[in-house]
Design brief:
It is globular and about 50 Å long. A hairpin with a 5-residue loop joins strand 5 and strand 6. Helices cover 5% and strands 62% of the residues. By secondary structure, the protein is mainly β. It has one helix and six strands, in the order E-E-E-E-H-E-E.
Length: 105
């Protein structure tokens, strides 16, 4: 088995794609799921490159309650860690588990 490495951190700004979906686990823990689109120009090897990503975000517990203010089109900064999930058809997905969410004006 491979040794666990401690570093797993991602900060991404983006636009909320649609209103977050709220749910509660059987254990009574609140969850919120939504996706954000990020578009920017990044410098790579001295050249400008367009970057685009759409990533699913999961917020749990108290943080999930804060997402109730989010609607499609909101600009946000999300900080957290990434984890692998499986879609319903078994395809791997990269998901951002939020530890902090800030609305950007």
């Amino acid at each position: 088995m491979q040794e666990a490495l401690p570093e797993n951190s991602l900060m991404l700004t983006g636009i909320v794609v649609k209103t977050p979906k709220q749910s509660t686990s059987p254990a009574g823990i609140s969850h919120s799921q939504f996706s954000i689109d990020h578009k920017s120009i990044q410098n790579e090897a001295g050249m400008n490159r367009q970057a685009f990503v759409r990533i699913q975000v999961v917020a749990t517990g108290e943080l999930s309650h804060l997402t109730r203010e989010l609607v499609a089109g909101c600009h946000v900064k999300v900080m957290g860690f990434i984890n692998r999930h499986e879609s319903r058809n078994g395809n791997p997905l990269l998901v951002l588990h939020a530890q902090q969410i800030e609305m950007i004006n």
